[in-house]
Amino acid sequence: MTVTAILPVPTTLVSRREAVFSPVAGQSSLARIVRSLAPVADVIVAAAAPLLDEVKKSLAQQGLSATRVCVADDPGARRDCISAALRVPGVADQVLLHDIAWPLVSPATLDRVVAALRAGSVAALPVCPVTDSIKAVNSNGAVTATVERTPLRTVQYPRGFDAAVLTRLITHGPGIDELDAVLTSGVSVTSVDGDTDTMAVELPRDASYLAAVIECRSDGSDR
């Protein structure tokens, strides 16, 4: 493999274990994401210490015991997970970052992000055009204008980075979010087409909806 995929499981999920481990259409978000990323990348799951044993057990139960798992630095925030994963021996020069709240991974989007990295991009983000009407409102909640949506995009996962650039951003960048860090760093960011069927979900609240999307996906895949 020439790409490493990092899946953070931060300490914020200790009180929301269902988001990681609850099965939807036969697989947990954890297993679904790992299986989706594995065809193109060597996957590392970086878990906060309170979740480490449960992550390993869950992966083993779902036939994924070969997946590499590392423990996050304290206190186990997303940034700490990413930092720990980047120090695992053998991490590739190009990495993908995913998020447990995005259990559906579009194979086509994944391929486009990887292709952008291999073509020389140091940061690659899958995006989709904003199609809803966007309105500006004042402090009283009254609509004051229609916002031009042509240049607006929503950002999805997975996100691709040059490993050295990501290490620098995570270590020295502002905040704890890699997207905020890259956008304020001056690093050139490449956008690629995302997938309108891919979205963030909140489990278990959205379990039925997610199962329906999986069932109806036009490509016939549960990825």
From TrEMBL:
Pfam families (alphabetical): IspD (PF01128)
Keyword field contains Nucleotidyltransferase: yes
Keywords: Nucleotidyltransferase, Transferase
InterPro entries linked: IspD/TarI, IspD/TarI_cytidylyltransf_bact, Nucleotide-diphossugar_trans
A GO molecular-function annotation: nucleotidyltransferase activity
Segments passing through the bilayer: none
Entry coiled-coil feature ranges: none
UniProt keyword Nucleotidyltransferase, yes or no: yes
PANTHER family in UniProt: 2-C-METHYL-D-ERYTHRITOL 4-PHOSPHATE CYTIDYLYLTRANSFERASE, CHLOROPLASTIC
Name of the protein described by the UniProt record: 2-C-methyl-D-erythritol 4-phosphate cytidylyltransferase
Organism: Mycolicibacterium iranicum
The organism's taxonomic lineage, starting at the top: Bacteria, Bacillati, Actinomycetota, Actinomycetes, Mycobacteriales
